């Protein structure tokens, strides 16, 4: 596969974007060399959606773009060229039946991310994609195309190179920033990277005592103290306490709306989202009247998970042994306020390695939005998470990978005069 008369397009990275791009290119008759450093292709794809792969969102393009907090305009052409419906049609045609769940999240009926990854791998192989297990170490302009250098297999010449190396999160899956280094070596700016969709560290030490506690039905509200305490996020869902702070679906979603600035945000957990403050007042009063001789801590057992009782007692300032009928009106009000608004202070995100997604990457101002080709470097494309685009949870990030990869493939097919997409 060294320099020859019909050199293949080289796709660097066999994750969601690279595999999908290779499938599109090979379907159009273009020879493809896919170079992936892991022995297994699509390692990150296989752990998406807790192993179930939320591969897209059943929404229109406008809604999709609303779920991309930064640089959403850049994705306008991509999502219109390859929509969420196109993703569903594509995988269904590959023999992966899909289902739609809460929040319009689309999963394979099998609940198996492996099925999604295997479908792409098998398609790529069946369509003749050459797969090389090696690490690309450099990409340099050469002879009207690019020289792709590898750690163990020598150099390859390619008229087009698609960089699909991912971001910086979950580096154990292979995405450890090589794409950013290739870009920097080619004088392409890379914006600062930070974690997104990430667990949060909080200041309150009592959080540790709640480690392992999962609240399935709580509302998390995040207020921005730099913006007059305006709520930047408020949603009902599931939240998990950890040894460092909070995690779980609600927290990951909230982080997409935040900057990594310790102390900037106040988190409030509504432990009783189904009751208004007034209804909760009445409920507490009723419990007191029905159980006048119960200790305060026993009274709380009817209202809270066991693990929370000690913490709520301590935060309310009411002694655990105080009898229910001795509670003052002010103490009842304090309890109500605590249950409706358990306060936490944001102390920062966990490290980027633990993030679902990397915020930041190759500066999209250098990239043609209609093709993902670098403006000043014909034949060089960046697709997927290596770019400075990221979405909220809900299948939007894999859709970004597919839509951007599609555009690169379409452009290359047109350039090589191959069968159009
Ligand atoms: C735990 C977890 C769960 C997620 N769940 C979802 C979900 O349900 N839905 C959703 O939409 N998004 C989800 N995401 C995000 C989604 O997985 C990513 O956005 C997506 O995988 C990005 O695709 P990519 O192809 O750009 O990068 P990756 O999937 O990271 O693939 C990059 C590939 O390039 C390879 N590579 C890197 N450098 C080199 C090199 N120098 N040479 C050769 N190969 C190289 C890597 O080994 C890797 O295989 C999840 C992420 C994580 C971490």
UniProtKB/TrEMBL annotation:
Its cofactor is FAD. Residues 9-410 form the RsdA/BaiN/AoA(So)-like Rossmann fold-like domain. The keyword Cytoplasm does not apply. Residues 195-357 form the RsdA/BaiN/AoA(So)-like insert domain. Keywords: FAD, Flavoprotein. PROSITE patterns: PROKAR_LIPOPROTEIN. The keyword Methyltransferase does not apply. Pfam families: HI0933_like, HI0933_like_1st. PANTHER family: OS12G0638800 PROTEIN. This is NAD(P)/FAD-dependent oxidoreductase. It comes from Neobittarella massiliensis.
């Amino acid at each position: 596969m060294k320099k020859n008369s019909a050199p293949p397009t080289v796709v660097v990275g066999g994750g969601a974007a690279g595999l999908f791009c290779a499938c599109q290119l090979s379907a159009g008759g273009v020879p493809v060399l896919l170079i992936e450093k892991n022995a297994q292709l699509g390692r990150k794809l296989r752990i998406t959606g807790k192993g179930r792969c939320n591969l897209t969102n059943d929404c229109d393009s406008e809604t999709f773009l609303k779920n991309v907090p930064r640089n959403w305009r850049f994705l306008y052409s991509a999502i219109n060229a390859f929509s969420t419906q196109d993703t569903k049609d594509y995988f269904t045609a590959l023999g992966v039946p899909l289902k739609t769940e809460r929040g319009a999240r689309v999963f394979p009926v099998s609940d198996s991310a492996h099925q999604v990854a295997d479908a792409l791998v098998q398609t790529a192989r069946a369509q003749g994609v050459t797969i090389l297990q090696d690490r690309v170490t450099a990409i340099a302009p050469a002879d009207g195309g690019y020289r792709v250098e590898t750690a163990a297999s020598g150099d390859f010449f390619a008229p087009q190179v698609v960089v699909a190396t991912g971001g910086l999160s979950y580096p154990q899956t292979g995405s450890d920033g090589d794409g950013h280094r290739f870009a920097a070596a080619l004088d392409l700016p890379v914006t600062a990277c930070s974690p997104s969709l990430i667990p949060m560290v909080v200041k309150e030490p009592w959080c540790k005592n709640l480690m392992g506690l999962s609240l399935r039905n709580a509302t998390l509200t995040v207020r921005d103290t730099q913006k007059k305490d305006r709520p930047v996020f408020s949603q009902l869902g599931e939240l998990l306490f950890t040894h460092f702070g909070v995690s779980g679906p609600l927290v990951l979603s909230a982080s997409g709306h935040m900057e990594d600035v310790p102390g900037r945000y106040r988190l409030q957990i509504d432990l009783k989202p189904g009751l208004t403050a007034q209804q909760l007042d009445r409920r507490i009063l009723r419990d007191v009247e029905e159980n006048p001789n119960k200790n305060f801590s026993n009274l709380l057992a009817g209202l809270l998970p066991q693990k929370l009782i000690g913490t709520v007692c301590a935060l309310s300032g009411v002694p655990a042994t105080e009898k229910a009928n001795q509670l003052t009106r002010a103490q009842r009000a304090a309890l109500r306020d605590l249950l409706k608004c358990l306060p936490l202070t944001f102390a920062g995100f966990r490290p980027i390695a633990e993030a679902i997604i990397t915020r930041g990457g190759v500066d999209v101002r250098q990239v043609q939005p209609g093709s993902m080709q670098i403006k000043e470097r014909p034949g060089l494309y960046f697709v997927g998470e290596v770019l400075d685009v990221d979405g909220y949870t809900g299948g939007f990030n894999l859709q970004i990978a597919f839509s951007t990869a599609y555009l690169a493939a379409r452009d290359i097919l047109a350039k090589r005069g191959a069968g159009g997409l």
